[in-house]
Amino acid sequence: MRPNWRNSWHKPLVETAAETMAQGVYEAMIDKYSSDRENLTKLLRSHCVEFGVRYIAPYSINNNLHGLVEFCAYIPDFGSKNGAFVDFFPEMNVMDLTYRRSIANKMRAFISFINPESLGSGADFVDCLVDWGYYGSDEQYSSKMFELGIPRYR
Question: Does pLDDT of 118 surpass 80?
């Protein structure tokens, strides 16, 4: 007797294989996303140490609605008077970008989304610092930052 797939609790083999493949692709995307975030955090740490920039990486904020939200880094002296959040630019989740931007806006902080491949060299990081501008105290503004041409704002 041939089973009736429409009325059976058994799933067709093709449907099960497609679900398994989709789950595998999703898990691979999540793994790549996590490793890209970790790579960006490591790059930011090393560049901040190299150029004498204060940072906290990774940086987490406890949001009442959604719990803990993690950014790759927080750089308190750049981007705005309230600092800059730096995070990975995930191509797969526009809602996450919007949500993270709203958190930064509520804190009146600057936010920059970066792809790790675009931040490979120290010169690329300096370009980011120049674009963001320095807003920290005079004591923290080093001669190295002056030599790199990083503008100071008040």
Answer: no
